[in-house]
Design a protein that fits this description.
- The chain has helices spanning 8-37, 44-69, 80-83.
- It is an all-alpha fold and 88 residues long.
- The chain has one domain (7-83).
- The mean pLDDT is 80.
């Protein structure tokens, strides 16, 4: 695990954070694909998609930091249940 720690709470939050990072990366890739596949006059869509993905990513991070500070294992909205099964 990260930095050699074997704490189950640490592993849980590492999985949640990694899933949030993967979610943001996928949203960014989709935004890039949309930007390069639609005409340039619809580039407002790119800005909205990217802004929404950044906003959701920040919300997930804040939610996760609050749960970690409380020493709770609360899954993140949208991705938390899938993240529990990651083999980290």
């Amino acid at each position: 695990m990260f930095f050699g720690t074997q704490c189950s709470l640490c592993q849980y939050h590492a999985r949640q954070g990694f899933a949030a990072f993967v979610f943001f990366t996928l949203c960014s890739a989709i935004t890039w694909l949309v930007n390069h596949s639609v005409p340039s006059f619809i580039s407002v869509v790119e800005g909205l998609l990217y802004g929404a993905s950044v906003f959701i990513y920040v919300l997930l991070l804040v939610y996760g930091v609050i749960a970690a500070a409380k020493s709770e294992e609360e899954p993140l909205p949208l991705i938390g249940k899938r993240a529990a099964n990651l083999p980290l």
